[in-house]
Amino acid sequence: MTSLHRYLLAPGIVVALMAIALMGDFRVIAHLVSFLGVVIAHPFWFLNTIFDMRVWFVVAVAILAASLLLYLLSLFREDSDALVHSGRSVEALIPVHNEPEVMHRSVEHLAASTYEDLTITIVCEPDDQPSIDRATDLAADHERVKYILSRRPGSKAGALNNAIERSDADVIAMFDADQEPHPRLIAHGMAALREHDIARVRSLPRPTGLIESMAYYEYLLLFFLPQKLARSLLGLGIVGTRSVLIERSVFDEVGQFDERALTEDMDFTHRCNQANLSIRELLYYPCYEEAAHTLRDWWGQRVRWISGHVSICHRHIRDWRNLHDPAFLSSLLSLVGTFAVGTLLSVTVPALVLAALAHPSLVAMGLAGIYGITLTTRGIDNYTAGTEGFDLAWLLIPVALTLFGLVVVQVVVSYVIGQEVNWYQVEKHG
């Protein structure tokens, strides 16, 4: 069953969807069914509409254009010179697991921070001797750096919870081992914490090769830009457990990270939003991180992300709180929207091919709009975040969207039938 599910179920659903899309004019079927006495014409009209590429392009370009404008507005409103270089104590936590080759990235970049009152703590798993040895060397090389062994091993959430309990810092910052925090990141985040409870900085996959660049453009189109619109409409600010600074009082109010959750960061995000905490999303001085280098790692990483997202959203709506609760509605819309968008994305390439045969000018204009917005965002990142050039991976955006849609379909079906997904760690080159 596992093999059948993994290799046939998701593609089978996509084939079924394409078959429906190719059936032609649903009005004929609607009239036939109505003739038999069952009035379901409107649902068929809806199906006929959602597979119309004109609708796809208009919706996609409108969403991305609005998101880009919100991004530019946020950049304009953010003061990149707002920096606090000393004052309250900050402890930056770096949980590591089998990452001795890459942990120097976050440690050395944080050690170069312009913020004075900063301690950097590497949190190691007791059975991970290579990482412990590397942490020992880094602690010896940098005065600000120390390492501890987690007393609650087995998960990132457990390591962070234990480190937070043992810390007496005013502010807790968290980073992954492969991230490269800008020297001014902590100072910029501390300036934001003068008026907010949480300050989260962008985390960008470094576009170093074909797969890595495809992951970067996927991040722009499916995560970074849409989140700007989602935050404006739903008020849902992402917190996460990396490239983020959090007031200690936050943990007293909403509790620690859920050590049972596959994506503890999304669970924590929902709880912070339910508590009406002030979350500041910062765009300047972002973190670079290592992207997946192979399609296998890319797939496995996203299966874990989407699986965690689906389970967290389901958990939050399963309580059936008041329908007027914004957090409840955010979870509900996220859960339903994830599957709906994933289903549509999964047929991106074949739908584009079919549409191009019938309406080549329409497809050309639609792609031009999407590519234009994407490359404009990349140009802004070249200026504000330090990325370089444009490469050619943006041409593969339809492929990336199709693959991502397949991941979503597989994950949702897996979740419904009770297929468990475990932690997946990608290979990092160091």
Strands, helices and their partners?
Layout: H1 2-21, H2 26-35, H3 41-50, H4 53-77, E1 90-95, H5 103-111, E2 118-124, H6 129-141, E3 145-149, H7 156-166, E4 171-174, H8 185-192, E5 198-205, H9 210-234, E6 244-247, H10 248-254, H11 264-274, E7 279-289, H12 295-318, H13 326-345, H14 348-358, H15 360-384, H16 397-417
Parallel strand pairs: 1-2, 1-4, 2-3, 5-7
Antiparallel strand pairs: 4-6, 5-6
How would you describe this protein?
It is a single chain. This protein is of the alpha/beta class. It has a domain at 1-51. Helix content is 58%, strand content 10%. The protein has 16 helices and 7 strands. A 7-stranded mixed β-sheet has the order 3-2-1-4-6-5-7, with helices on both faces.
Question: Briefly, what is this?
Answer:
The protein has helices at 2-21, 26-35, 41-50, 53-77, 103-111, 129-141, 156-166, 185-192, 210-234, 248-254, 264-274, 295-318, 326-345, 348-358, 360-384, 397-417; strands at 90-95, 118-124, 145-149, 171-174, 198-205, 244-247, 279-289. The protein has 430 residues and is of the alpha/beta class.
Q: Which features does this protein show?
A:
globular, 7-stranded mixed β-sheet, 16 helices, 430 residues, alpha/beta
Gross geometry: globular
Order of helices and strands: HHHHEHEHEHEHEHEHHEHHHHH
Oligomer: single chain
Mean pLDDT: 80
Determine the fraction of residues in helical runs and give it as a percent range. Answer: 55-70%
